[in-house]
Amino acid sequence: MLLQFKSTKVDSKKAKFQNPSRVRDHLANERTYLAWMRTAIALIGFGIVIVRLRILQSPLPPPGIGWRLGLMFSLVGLVTVLFSTKHYFNSRCNIDEDTYEPAEGLILLFSFAVILLGAGVVYFVFSSTLNAPIALIAD
Fold first, then answer.
1. Is 83 or 52 the better-scoring residue by pLDDT?
2. Who contacts 61 (Cβ-Cβ below 8 Å, separation ≥6)?
3. How far is CA 111 from CA 80, 87, 107, in A?
4. In this structure, which long-range contacts are made by residues 133-136, counting pairs with CB atoms below 8 Å and at least 24 apart in sequence?
5. Using one digit for the tens of pLDDT, what is the confidence trace for 125-138?
6. Phi/psi at 21 (nearest 5 deg)?
7. Which of 14, 64, 77, 89 lies 20 to 30 Å (CA to CA) from residue 71?
8. In the chain, % of residues over pLDDT 70
9. DSSP string for residues in 37-71
């Protein structure tokens, strides 16, 4: 998949007269981008935590579905970085050109991904056997 970014060069004199709230719109676009980045970092981190949870079980169980679920969280986090960066630059150009329209497809895509990942977590948590965790602090 190729990410195509629009050119970010804009005539600043023309842009100043087109949209009086241009600066506010750009700041909101940056806040949205940073929120997507936080979401991506959380997804990647949660995927790592899911993979590492098996260490807390005694005896160490064989790898099951947990590593796949953790991998999926991490991959969705990485895809979030790619799509949110593309969306940021596209929105930036659209704000400058005063042609911005909200992106419905991106929201639906990530909502669906989070629903699937959430269902995977519920399945993983309730289908795994409960073993006593090993003592992390020596007596």
1. 83
2. 54, 131
3. 11, 16, 6
4. 133/56, 133/57, 133/58, 134/56, 134/57, 134/58, 136/56
5. 777 665 545 555 55
6. -100, 25
7. 89
8. 70
9. HHHHHHHHHHHHHHHHGGGGBSS-PPP-SHHHHHH
